[in-house]
């Protein structure tokens, strides 16, 4: 039985929620700019000692400003454009085309019931979100 792209994408959204997948936008550049800016400013005011102090304070400030920016992967999937949803479907197509499922809920049950299949589908979903959507994905499994 052929399952539609929309059903697969909905199943992936459900699986991501059931497995606690969270993502965060890459904040590395923002953190680096904050740390560098504070360190440079402190070095101008205090000289070499200011560089060390500013680097430390800038790192702490950058950590505070860029932490806890997590978004559920299910929300990212819901907000994707149709083109991206189709690409996501193609990323997991090898794992789900051989399954006999009529709708998203049956597909979720089949994937959740097979640990190897679940890990492969989540790995493909994680790779897609990381590589195509520029997020870092964290999970609780």
Structure notes:
The chain has 7 helices and 3 strands. It is elongated. A 3-stranded antiparallel β-sheet has the order 2-1-3. α1 (5-18) packs across α6 (104-112) and α2 runs antiparallel to α3 (48-66). With 141 residues, the protein is mostly helical.
Helix-strand layout with pairing:
Layout: H1 5-18, E1 22-25, H2 28-46, H3 48-66, E2 70-72, H4 73-78, H5 82-96, H6 104-112, H7 115-133, E3 135-138
Antiparallel strand pairs: 1-2, 1-3
Helix pairs in contact: 1-5, 1-6, 2-3, 5-7
Low-confidence stretches: none
Number of strands: 3
Helix content: over 70%
Number of helices: 7
SSE ordering:
HEHHEHHHHE
Distance between the termini: 30 Å
Described by the principal axes of the CA atoms, the overall outline is elongated
Derived from helix and strand composition plus strand pairing, the structural class reads: mainly alpha
Strand order of the largest sheet: 2-1-3
Mean pLDDT: 83
Rg of Cα set: 21 Å
Beta content comes to 5-15%
| Major sheet attributes | 3 strands, antiparallel
